[in-house]
Design goal:
Length: 347
């Protein structure tokens, strides 16, 4: 990531840390440790990468104080207990300096209905549509071809990337970020069987999101059937995720790409889900649960911890019998081992 000339003193004043080296030394880029040149700042966050430090050509390395002795001659350092967190804040600071601000006001090609509450500092891009009763607070950006439904509410500093669909009466707090192609507040998958056909159940709820929520590209969060679908503060969803109707996700939980969560599942705070993990509907998952990628959560999880696993597809009766046996596999192994030991000890 490149930008204009920045001194190490500027970085320290903005982000903190203990500077080892000249405050007036300049950098023009952030780079990976193994590729950083003499005009770049880099970071070292993992002990296994320490051998790369000796050969680094970087102008400055962000690292832990206890790794300072590994610095090559002439290399400056910014010392911090958590280099990865420092790197994250550095990228934000850097991007804010070089990213062009969205133009305030409404593009001539956009359509803004009567009765919309549009803060003077908000930005509505080309061919965007804002429906009646919507509220766009200070600094909100609705980029090109965005659609914001009737009575929707976008909190201060929230940004909708191009081609986002934001459904009627759906809400998000401050500093949200929604990726291109995302659909928030589409109908949940609700149908009643009737003589071999399916009768649609109208989805009468909405979607409510807290502050600092990030939604990836082409992710869908369905509106609730009666109650709202709810995402707490700081929730992070990657690309191409499906969150079904009436799901609740607690504060600061995160999901990697292609996760699917079925209807009415309740997920606690500070949970993580690896890519392509699946969660069955109407389950309860407590706080601080971490599910490995491609795992299938088939029952409620009542204790924090690490979880993983998948089971082959089978006819339902066989699957249930095998699953019941699998749960007892360790105990069965211990029993068999005990029988073997008894046999070995017999005269």
């Amino acid at each position: 990531m490149s930008a204009a000339l920045v001194t190490l003193g500027e970085l320290q004043r903005a982000l903190g840390g203990e500077l080892i080296g000249e405050a007036g030394r300049s950098v023009t880029a952030i780079a990976a440790l193994e590729r950083a040149g003499p005009d770049a700042i880099t970071f070292l966050a993992q002990a296994r990468l320490r051998p790369l430090l000796a050969a680094s050509q970087a102008a400055c390395v962000v690292l832990k104080p206890e790794w300072q002795a590994d610095l090559p001659t002439g290399c400056a350092a910014l010392l911090t207990p958590d280099p990865y967190l420092y790197y994250a804040r550095l990228t934000q600071w850097w991007a804010a300096r070089q990213r062009a601000a969205a133009p305030k006001g409404v593009h001539p090609s956009a359509q803004v209905a009567e009765g919309v509450r549009l803060h003077p500092s908000a930005s509505v891009g080309p061919f965007a549509v804002i429906e009646p009763g919507a509220v766009l607070e200070a600094g909100v950006v609705v980029d090109a071809h965005g659609w914001v439904g009737e009575g929707a509410h976008l909190g201060e500093g929230t940004r909708l990337a191009p081609r986002v669909t934001w459904g009627a009466h759906c809400r998000i707090g401050a500093r949200g970020l929604v990726g291109s192609g995302a659909v928030i507040g589409g109908d949940g998958f609700g149908f009643a069987p009737a003589g071999g056909a399916w009768i649609k159940i109208e989805q009468l709820g909405a979607v409510r999101m807290g502050c600092d929520v990030e939604i990836g590209a082409n992710t869908c969060v369905d509106r609730g059937a009666l109650d709202d679908t709810v995402l707490g503060d700081g929730v992070k969803l990657d690309n191409q995720i499906q969150i079904a109707h009436n799901v609740q996700i607690g504060d600061h939980s995160a999901m990697a790409g292609c996760v699917g969560v079925a209807g009415s599942a309740r997920i606690g705070r500070h949970c993580t889900f690896g890519g392509a993990a699946m969660v069955f509907g109407h389950l309860e998952i407590v706080d601080h649960v971490h599910v490995a990628g491609a795992s299938v959560v088939m029952r409620s999880i009542t204790a924090p911890g690490q979880y993983s696993g998948i089971f082959p597809l089978d006819d339902k009766a066989s699957w249930e019998r095998n699953a019941a046996t699998l749960r007892q596999l360790h105990q069965l192994r211990q029993r068999v081992r005990g029988l073997e030991l008894d046999r070995e000890q017999q005269p």
